[in-house]
Design brief:
Blueprint: E1 6-10, H1 15-26, E2 30-35, E3 47-51, H2 57-71, E4 76-79, H3 94-122, E5 125-130, H4 143-163, E6 168-175, E7 178-179, E8 188-190, E9 198-199, H5 200-211, E10 221-224, E11 231-233
Parallel strand pairs: 1-2, 1-4, 2-3, 4-5, 5-6, 6-10, 7-9
Antiparallel strand pairs: 8-11
Helix pairs in contact: 1-5, 2-3, 3-4
The chain binds NADP nicotinamide-adenine-dinucleotide phosphate (NAP).
Amino acid sequence: MLKNKTYLVTGSSSGIGKSVSEILLNNGAKVIGISRKKTLFKKTKNYFHYEIDLSDLEKSYNEVLKILLKYNKIDGFVSNAGNGVFKSLENFSPYQINQFIKLNLTSHIIITRAILPYLKKNKTGNIIFIGSESALKGKKYGSLYSSCKFGLRGFSQSIREECANNNIKVTIVNPGMVKTPFFKKLGFSPGKSFGEFIESSEVGKIVLYILNFGDGMVLDEINLSPLKKVIKFDK
Ligand SMILES: NC(=O)c1ccc[n+]([C@@H]2O[C@H](COP(=O)([O-])OP(=O)(O)OC[C@H]3O[C@@H](n4cnc5c(N)ncnc54)[C@H](OP(=O)(O)O)[C@@H]3O)[C@@H](O)[C@H]2O)c1
């Protein structure tokens, strides 16, 4: 049980972040959720939502500092919010490249920057990044997405070493295709049959497992894939 624990989850309105928030709430934790849209949970009593656009870096850093001042004790951070765009590099304008990296890499670094002093002060805590299989291997049309996820993985490895003496555990979870609204505008999605996709609730269970994982050890990385790799392209 995570009673008396408070976790900050970005991207709590949908998909993986919503499932993570749900399982944390069901296990007695308080969840501070960040996203642009609000989602209602059955256990609303312990859910506190903040409407923040994480691609606005300065503003979101300041908003998160205010949240931290208010709650003071934070036990962990699930850095999850993000999106995907997959096409050849020449089809992105410099502006689009910058915007994409802001949300999918820089905002994770900046929010971690805001939270770290609080976790260090408590001399305990977890930081869990939701990476991707694209953090492990670059693929056609995934140049920007992989750049961000490889970057997040490198960041996670460095921060893990920096925080170890403060008893803060840093983990990155790298899923393959998870059935979420992530694919809504992408033109492709995972297969629909058994074994062709990961359920977001399974990623939630993994986050819970990480939070309950033994003292004196850290789970560095968890990679997970659907049993079968099937990609369906929209007609
Ligand atoms: N689905 C997959 O196959 C898969 C696989 C590996 C890794 N991932 C990663 O998992 C994470 C979550 O993806 P998902 O599959 O759960 O997708 P999703 O269902 O589309 O959820 C994305 C979440 O991020 C939030 N978000 C997006 N832009 C935001 C912004 N500018 N400011 C604040 N919040 C923002 C969204 O909230 P609002 O729209 O309300 O702002 C939403 O809650 C992403 O980092 C993604 O790269 C996904």
